[in-house]
Write a structure and sequence with these properties.
About 80% of the residues lie in helices and about 0% in strands. The chain is built from five helices and no strands. The relative contact order is 0.11.
Length: about 90
């Protein structure tokens, strides 16, 4: 819960990515909650869609949780954001 508060009050993207990754790690390794870990990494993807580490964790967790459709939706939403920011939709 403390990390969630820190995420809400952090404007630095690198720090947000670090905190969300820490949340995901805690959810997965200490609490064995793979769905919550997937969700945290999904939020991290929104911060930095180019992070290879986040993408790798999402792929691995999608396989473990069978959340392939959710993964595809995450990737699609990031592609749409990239298209909008470059003027291509």
């Amino acid at each position: 819960a403390v990390y969630e508060v820190m995420v809400r009050h952090t404007t630095d993207p690198a720090r947000r990515l670090e905190l969300l990754s820490k949340i995901a790690e805690i959810q997965e390794r200490r609490l064995a909650n793979h769905d919550a870990a997937f969700d945290a990494y999904g939020r991290a993807l929104a911060v930095d869609p180019t992070s290879g580490d986040v993408v790798a964790h999402l792929d691995r967790l999608a396989e473990a949780t069978a959340r392939w459709e959710d993964l595809a939706n995450l990737y699609e939403s990031q592609l749409e954001k990239i298209g909008e920011s470059s003027g291509q939709v």
